Amino acid sequence: MMQELTFKIIARIKSDFREKFGIPRQSGLVQNLRSTIRFEPEFRNADALRGLEGFSHLWIMWIFSENIRSTWSPTVRPPRLGGNKRLGVFATRSSFRPNPVALSCVKIEQIHLDGPEGPEIIVSGADLMDGTPIVDIKPYLPYTDAHPEAVGGFADAVKQNKVHVKNPDALAKLSADKRTALIEVLEQDPRPAYQNDPERIYGFPFAEHEVKFKVAGDELEIVSIA
Fold this sequence. Notes:
The chain is mostly beta strands. Helices cover 9% and strands 30% of the residues.
């Protein structure tokens, strides 16, 4: 019986996040966030995307490349539960897994078949760090992949904290599309759920900028954008 498998990296994501902190916790939370799927040279073949133009969404199978480790734990501490309660790893979407494989659903915005690095797929709603390796993509099928009656377990009981960005004008130096996406990212409150110091300044790189912010209650203040 086969005990190990080897995956080929078919593509990598080009996104505005160079670090893990700040990335939306799930795909689809920030619809205005644009990313590009760029195929590795071996897979730059327009024929491989033939028919994809008829679909609106994609499943992306990718690797938690920043969390590859040789050991695993049967339980983890989900950040959305404050990091204080342990649950089974297979009952969560934690990145600390026996196999560092992830799954995200994104919307197809454009498909570029030509160009020096084509074909490329522009998608929205991705939750991947820049350069993340992708091992497969599959079309989303509404008739079988959508389950409106589904129950979300402990995730249904956890409040999705959103905050109000009190000074969005501080992002005026960004282009309009980047500004809209970053505001939506900040509204998701990127802080760990167990941190609540109103004077603490957090920061992360976004596109070509470094954004710093702090949160008091449900108000987020942009401290600087450099």
